[in-house]
Amino acid sequence: MNWLILVLAGLCECVWATTMKLSDGFTKLPYTLVTVVGMIASFVLLARASRHIPLSVSYPVWTGIGAVGAVLLGLILFHERLNLWTLGFVVLLIVSIVGIKVSSAG
Description:
This protein has one domain (2-103). By secondary structure, it is mostly helical. It contains 4 helices and no strands.
């Protein structure tokens, strides 16, 4: 259950990162509000997961989910492009997140 909470925290990070871009520098109120709610939800869920998952595991997994999610959403929603090097490092990031989860005792 704690890992599910951590994944939800990472997904909330993806939401707020995306809506922050859509807020156009916090000039569009609906996106700004979703950004703030997403940030709060992300931090609250991370804090809850961190009660049972070591910080040395929960924080990198949380940021990794947010980073990979932001890359994917940038590709899908904003038609951003990745060069081969960037794609390779994103793959390494995914492998690292999975490795942290598999190797952790929590």
